[in-house]
Amino acid sequence: MTAITHYPVMLDEVITALQIKPDGIYIDGTFGRGGHSQVILSQLGPKGRLLVLDKDPDAIAHAKEHIQDERLECHHACFSELWRIVKAQNLVGKIDGILLDLGVSSPQLDVGERGFSFMRDGPLDMRMDPTRGISASEWLKHAAAEDITKVLYEYGEESFAKKIAHKICTTRTQTPIETTKQLASLVAECVFVKKHQKHPATKTFQAIRIFINQEMQAIDEALNNCQELLAYQGRLAVISFHSLEDRKIKQFFRRISKVQLPKGIAIPEKDLQAPFKWVVKRQRPQEEELERNQRARSATLRVAEKALMS
């Protein structure tokens, strides 16, 4: 097994939360470079299984090349496709743990050609799966100012959304916006930030990336599917990185951890139980992790466990 050469976020906390059983069946819905997956595999016995998914074909190629383990099964797919993959193997209701590490992986940020980072110049792509959909530059060529404004405001919570959208539409009539440096510079002209605050293009890049990859919709679909995919006492661990993701996760966990009273049937609430127990409400990285990996600074881990049948 290859040694971990990057820093998987909140590794110890995730492994503790999943309570890995040697003969269990687990899913890493966001493989990345396999930091979490490798440790999960190390705690599984000969009969254990790990299914890994990733939208990024580079991530799956890395898994197949660097982890030779018959207990590992790789799928080039988004975590929103979990139901299809698990159902095809007759494993619905048999999964002991699911990990979703949301956001962009370090390799995606570090390779300028992927177009995710305003810190590195490269083609303005932003697709987690470059084989599907349209790139960010293609979308910006034709999107209406109103649509760009809506995306920046809803997915980036960008106060200067309208001003940025207008600047994009004015600029593209003269010069196509095709690189990350072009977009970052354009946004910097529109956004006022105080000294020591985040880069002015942070919210814009986040918003466009979320829109291009349909990330919010994928999270909704995955969360709803996980309820049925998990075995009783199976655990769902989710790491989010910005307020939109975290708000969605928190609301979902709050809902499934409440008693659901059947309509029109008089049953005392004390005789009912919630479908899930919220076992980790909010956990942040330790200081020692932040010292070696600043990209973990915005991470939040939440964990829920499927309740036993009463």
Automatic annotation (TrEMBL):
Q: What processes does the entry annotate via GO biological process terms?
A: rRNA base methylation
Checking SUPFAM superfamilies in the record gives: Putative methyltransferase TM0872, insert domain, S-adenosyl-L-methionine-dependent methyltransferases
Keywords noted in UniProt: Cytoplasm, Methyltransferase, rRNA processing, S-adenosyl-L-methionine, Transferase
User: Which top class of enzyme applies to this chain?
Assistant: transferase
Which Enzyme Commission number(s) are listed? 2.1.1.199
GO MF: rRNA (cytosine-N4-)-methyltransferase activity
Might you report a single GO cellular component term? Answer: cytoplasm
Write out the catalysed reaction.
Answer: cytidine(1402) in 16S rRNA + S-adenosyl-L-methionine = N(4)-methylcytidine(1402) in 16S rRNA + S-adenosyl-L-homocysteine + H(+)
Sites binding S-adenosyl-L-methionine sit at 34-36, 54, 79, 101, 108
Compartments it resides in: Cytoplasm
Superkingdom classification of source: Bacteria
Kindly report the protein's main subcellular placement as a broad class. cytoplasm
Free-text function comment from the UniProt entry:
Specifically methylates the N4 position of cytidine in position 1402 (C1402) of 16S rRNA.
Say which family it is in. Answer: Belongs to the methyltransferase superfamily. RsmH family.
**HAMAP family linked:** 16SrRNA_methyltr_H
This protein is called Ribosomal RNA small subunit methyltransferase H
Tell me the lineage of the source organism: Bacteria, Pseudomonadati, Pseudomonadota, Gammaproteobacteria, Candidatus Berkiellales
In the UniProt record, what gene is named as encoding this protein?
Answer: rsmH
